Amino acid sequence: MPESDSELVEAEAEETAGEPLVRRSDQLGLGPLGDYIGFHLRLAQDASFRNFVRHTGRRDLRPGRFTALLLIRENPGITPMGLSRGAGRDKSTITPLLRDLERQGLIERRPVPTDRRSHVLALTPAGQTLLDELCEHAARHDAELDEIVGIENKPAFLAQLRAIIERLG
């Protein structure tokens, strides 16, 4: 039996049709995981993604799509490699994501006139429409996170997360 609250956590499970496979009442003893920051960062990220999906009502929205669309909009002329670096993603995960976004008509690849081997990314009108909708949901989602963290604590919390990214990234 776990000895402290930090050794208890909701059992993580994949979701099927939005329902967790393991219910909240089922808890596991975590041993040392209960005190590992990295473990809790991952659980928090997963919870955040699930909440964002609930806000959008789009079960087809996978993590990274919103980020990719937003970075493409905010950085006209961004290359796939630039997007990969900006999103903190490996090229092996960016390439299938971009293919999928292009197949859905949300982005397009445009050739670079001075370098025929290169191309840049741009949102299509459908991509901009979807991004506008997602930005509204993201603002509400972030407001919920602000309530949890405390708006007065947000700058320090973000600074700590950025320090983790900088030192370990």
TrEMBL record:
Alphabetical list of SMART domains matching this protein: HTH_MARR
Q: Which Pfam families match?
A: MarR
Q: Give the HTH marR-type domain ranges.
A: 14-169
GO biological process, alphabetically ordered: response to stress
User: InterPro entries recorded for this chain?
Assistant: HTH_MarR-typ, MarR/SlyA-like, WH-like_DNA-bd_sf, WH_DNA-bd_sf
Q: Name one GO molecular function term.
A: DNA-binding transcription factor activity
Q: Which domain of life is it from?
A: Bacteria
SUPFAM superfamilies, per the entry:
Winged helix' DNA-binding domain
> Could you tell me what this protein is called?
MarR family transcriptional regulator
